[in-house]
Sequence to fold (627 residues):
Amino acid sequence: MIRDAWRKIKGGGASSTGERPGLKPENLVWVFGTARTGSSWLSAMMGEMGGCSRWHEPLVGHLFGNLYYVRAGHRSEDEHFILGARYRELWLGMVRNFVLDSAAARFPEVAGGRYLIVKEPQGSVGAPLLMEALPESRMILLARDPRDVVASNLDAHKKDTWTADLMRKGGKEKPPSLAESSPDAFVKGQARRYVRDVGNAKLAYDAHRGRKVLIKYEDLRADTLGTIKRIYSDLEISVDEGELARSVEKHSWENIPEEEKGEGKFHRKATPGGWREDLTPEQVEIVERVAGPLLGELYPVRSTA
Amino acid sequence: MPDFRFRKVFDVVRDVRVVLGLEAGVSRGALPEPADGQHPGGVAPENMIWIFGTGRTGSTWLAAMMEEPKGHDVWFEPRVGTIFDPQRFQRHGGKQFILASQYKEVWLQSIRNFILDGANARFPESNGGYLAVKEPGGSVGAGLIMEALPESGMVLLIRDPRDVVASWLDATRKGGWQTRRRGEGGRRAESLAETNPNAFVRRHAEAYLQHVGSARQAYDAHEGRKVVVRYEDLRADTLATMKRMYGELGVPVDQARLVQTVEKHSWENIPAEEKGEGKFYRKATPQGWREDLTPHQVRTVERITAPLLEEFYPTGPAEQEG
Fold:
């Protein structure tokens, strides 16, 4: 009892809550999901709105989530484990401080009541931890049909695509990928990654008691303005509708130059259901088997190849 | 399991001390202060001694001995180093990344607070005492940890990589202690050690290079107190090696008590039924790899770990030794 009391004091004390002068945790808007769900597009539109800044993939969710859920989840009852259950309140407070200290250092302008859009699809494995550590924050769960996500990744990781260019910019050569040598194994790996990322983002979404919204890439493509208005409405963020319409128009698929679109490029085809052309029937079956429960939950009308 | 038994003793003693310590703290109104980098009354960063290296190097044995002196504690594998593994994020070097170099001062302070808060919560009564942190499995993060805690001491615990790999091979075969432990935890129990031992050897040699290589770099960069301890030296002359270690780290210890500690934890004092193939305590025989690994496996380990092998075990590859 004493121990619990102390933990509460420790975790909830004035300097342990993560409050930073001017930086409000409730003004953080987390975008979770997985890669290739349109999160760059969405966060570009939102980050451009007046009063918003964008934090592009801090990967803080991966930092903590990988150890907690992947590497050492079996040790959660071990009190020596840094992320052990007995000290959960304590280390969640530490995670909170870690995020808020870094955000305050990078985005001092957010101090004036602005919003910070945190694009974190590749850190979604740690989404449950982050949202528990920052319950006041707002959350967007951005979902997309796993078959299209896997098809997009399959294209991205082939030889001489935009991912190779990205690595070259960082001074490295992209190593040979399973996408070329063993595409079915690649598909299976990507489907598992989808389940890990989107599965954990969904867990976080279900548990989060604060403001949140679940949107689908397909809805964003079909009616971008209507969907993004719903995001702001559900998150209770006021927005200038004229400015929003201009941002949507500026970032529309039609406004991306033709030479920047197509196979092997970051902007590929943005066509929901494109997996029918991109994946073999065996690959579709692999994705549907691995991601079955999530697919059924997020896309209940299943249409197989 | 012997190592579980060892852990239980730690846990019971610590629980009692935590409760007593907290009761005393509450009655005095002296609750630990929150993270500010100073952490009065708890674990002093300069009294932390980090043990890095890799698994199967005798770190459990060393930690057990280091817990014996009065006022000394052991934090048993927190795995905090695994969180802050810079290699995992090599391709994410941009300024948006949470560990971007432009904001190093900020996140290094966060890492420091993260560790010290975690240590103080677990060892609140460690007022002026020493805390050994057994962290071989988190050695990939040794560099950032030692940079965040420059006052701390560091032990680089190494062992011949051929013996390390041979030990893992034994542990993860069918019926091995690691396989049993994984099975008890409900995790996949089958092992590459059974299905493809050569691939297993290659993978563990690479892990050795990654872990010990990271720890080695951290050791070079660390300007505070530090010492390299070789498992083989610890086996050959435990008392002298322990004395040297404490001497290099500037940790005062009672010499008579140290003699007792070394004796208590000696290989000879482990019950015979707890030792042998497939058990946590296997054979503790340096160069046992000559019996345990095939020539092909030996060459694999030597090729992959060559930089470390040449530095710490410079007699050359097995075939040159005859």
Q: What stands out?
A: Residues 1-37 of chain B have pLDDT under 50 and may be disordered. The longest helix of chain B spans residues 2-28. Chain B has 16 helices and five strands. The radius of gyration of chain B is 20 Å.
